[in-house]
């Protein structure tokens, strides 16, 4: 179900255009609504000051963007999918919505206080390049938060999660949304860097204070970091 590397961006964009109208419903069903708490925790971890400028990479329908705006941030949601952005704009939130690529952000260097990305790293064609772009647009000491799926450490929880994620989720997708898209979802975890590799990418991009927090028995993860000062970190 995974597209070849040279076709991934176009395939992912088309897929999310197809499922945009059902995306929020499927998120609530797949996670039993727990994803809302994960997103609140992600924005809270950024400790945003009033009027902080935040960009949400691959924002989808804008859950994290809107959450950030509710916390007082000047929030920008960026996504390659026109369908997802249409749904996001329909929420009527005081956010800026931009169609663009996380690998080439239309933002000036050191122009943001925070960068966030939710459940989208595995959809990018180059995770390391996206992290380098995030570092480029962040001010020194600017904060990064990455919310992603994870593999539970407990063997019983891991087994149950695997059965649910690889069997039930595709079935729900087939019945309510798009068979191919929700078969791709569990398989796309193969694109996600393991913990040590992700930490190394973050360090090379110029981040420090890298921390990982397991959510809901390890079915999701929240990785946070700070943009180092030039003398304390290197650019990828």
Description:
Helix content is 43%, strand content 22%. Residues 232-236 have low confidence and may be disordered. It has a single domain (5-232), classed as Vaccinia Virus protein VP39 (Rossmann fold). The chain starts with 7 loop residues before the first helix and ends in a 9-residue tail after the last strand. The longest helix has 22 residues, at 155-176. By secondary structure, it is of the alpha/beta class. Strand 4, helix 6 (127-137) and strand 5 form a beta-alpha-beta unit. It has a 7-stranded mixed sheet, with helices on both faces. It has helices at residues 8-19, 23-31, 34-45, 63-70, 82-89, 127-137, 155-176, 179-187, 195-205; strands at residues 53-57, 74-79, 96-99, 112-118, 138-149, 207-215, 220-227. Helix 6 (127-137) runs parallel beside helix 9 and helix 7 (155-176) packs antiparallel against helix 8.
Give me a quick take on this structure.
By secondary structure, the protein is an alpha/beta fold.
Features:
236 residues, alpha/beta, Rossmann fold, seven-stranded mixed β-sheet, 7 strands, disordered C terminus
Category by helix and strand content: alpha/beta
What is the CATH homologous superfamily assignment?
Vaccinia Virus protein VP39
Pattern of helices and strands: HHHEHEHEEHEHHHEE
Examine the coordinates and then state which fold CATH places here, giving the name of the CATH topology. Answer: Rossmann fold
Instruction: Give the C-alpha Rg.
Output: 17 Å
| CATH architecture assignment | 3-Layer(aba) Sandwich
Total domain modules: 1
Number of strands: 7
Pick out the low-confidence regions.
Answer: 232-236
Helix tally equals 9
The CATH C-level name is Alpha Beta
């Amino acid at each position: 179900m995974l597209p070849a590397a040279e076709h991934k961006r176009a395939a992912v964009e088309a897929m999310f255009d197809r499922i945009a109208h059902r995306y929020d419903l499927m998120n609530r069903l797949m996670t039993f609504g727990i994803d809302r708490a994960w997103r609140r925790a992600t924005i809270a971890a950024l400790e945003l000051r009033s009027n902080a400028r935040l960009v949400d990479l691959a924002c989808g329908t804008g859950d994290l963007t809107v959450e950030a705006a509710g916390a007082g941030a000047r929030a920008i949601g960026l996504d390659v999918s026109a369908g997802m952005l249409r749904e996001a704009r329909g929420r009527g939130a005081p956010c800026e919505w931009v169609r663009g690529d996380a690998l080439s952000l239309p933002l000036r260097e050191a122009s943001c206080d925070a960068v966030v990305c939710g459940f989208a790293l595995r959809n990018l064609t180059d995770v390391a390049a996206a992290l380098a772009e995030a570092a480029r647009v962040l001010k020194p000491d600017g904060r990064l938060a990455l919310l992603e799926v994870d593999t539970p450490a407990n063997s019983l929880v891991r087994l149950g999660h695997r059965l649910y994620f690889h069997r039930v989720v595709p079935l729900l997708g087939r019945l309510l949304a798009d068979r191919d898209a929700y078969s791709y979802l569990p398989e796309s975890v193969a694109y996600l860097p393991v913990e040590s590799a992700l930490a190394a990418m973050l360090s090379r991009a110029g981040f420090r204070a890298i921390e990982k927090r397991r959510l809901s028995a390890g079915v999701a993860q929240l990785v946070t970091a700070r943009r180092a000062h030039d003398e304390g970190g290197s650019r990828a």
